[in-house]
Predict the structure.
Amino acid sequence: MHIFANPVRFLQLARPLTGWCGWIGAVLVVAGLGAGLFLTPPDYLQGETVRIMYLHVPSAWLGMAGWGGIAVASIMELVWRHPLAGIAARAVALPGAVFTGICLATGSIWGRPTWGTWWEWDGRLTSMLVLLFVYIAYIALAEAEADRGGQGRIAAIFGIVGVVNLPIIHFSVLWWRTLHQGESIGITGSSIAGSILWPLPVALVGFTLLFVSIVLMRMRAMLARQKVEARLRRMGTEP
Amino acid sequence: MSQWPFVIAAYVLAGVATLALALASFVQMRKAERAAEALKRR
Amino acid sequence: MKAKNQRLVLALLALVALVGAVLLGMSALKDQASYFYSPSDAVRDHVELGRTVRLGGMVEKGSLRREPDGVTIDFRVTDGAATVTARYTGIVPDLFREGSGVVAEGRFTAPGRFAADTILAKHDENYKPPELAGNGMHETGSLKR
């Protein structure tokens, strides 16, 4: 873990990984979504709209996993004071918010032809919308803190506290009655027929790799900006 | 109700958003790393 | 104990306490946070007549009847234990059908009789191609409790 705390070592690893994750992820996404659009059969009840699943499930996973990542990085930042952990947490925030937004939008488009409504305030939909707002609040907070030269500690605490929303999202369909259906994929197996299911893991892995690549790009951008600022400061003090 | 328009709308929306995010992140990284490189050489 | 270990323990304790509190709160809110009443709830809780509520359950097989005016339907909503007769005028979602889930918003006009203003279809977590679906019969098992 401490190996990654060193920005030089991190960059040696991050530079090749950015490209590899990005391109492999893109190929898998195109393959998974292509298969989901053209190769799989429609659902017996929902018809063609079931194809929205190949977007909706990966984006829901990334929205939630993103906040999980922010929480882990925030703990590392608070406990070990790794500056790189704070950068990682802030780099995840925007992609996490975007994928949460994609999840909400695709879910809304899916809901209209199946349930008969664009939006309902049930437990799952509402808790996912809260996640989007929590992301936006985190981004604003982290920006404000960085602008004032803070250490990122307030954002880190917010990152840890915000994790309470993840079990709410997960258990909402299990414990509360919701319009959203229950879990299709659990530890014990899946209630989705194999011929419909198979492109989903492909798209899921692809989107995840793409997400990692985007986070690495944002971390590299932040590190480079920090380097520029530090150098300019030094040049300013010793002319 | 016709279903394909909903499917296509979802795919276009998600595709545009993902692509825009990836491209913006790439451009920002490029710009920042070039600036850092240029400053180092000075 | 070293300072960073102390911080680690503190952070993890705070995390566990937070998540625990939320899980407790969620299970306590089980009834209030429900999006709809099941027919059994409605009977047990004596939902007052005329109050706008949501009623959810399965559309009982063989219960769907179309009135002569062509746009009004009658059907029974069941959760296996209790049954409510519902009436609705208007266009229903494509997925609204016998043996499938439904969430109706409206009010009770008499005990066991429900007038719906809107109808939403609720499907379950089983996805399969048409050739695996047998004779097209659909059971929303997750609504039976």
About this structure: Residues 199-237 of chain A form the longest helix (39 residues). Chain A has one domain: 21-183+192-224. Chain A has eight helices and no strands.
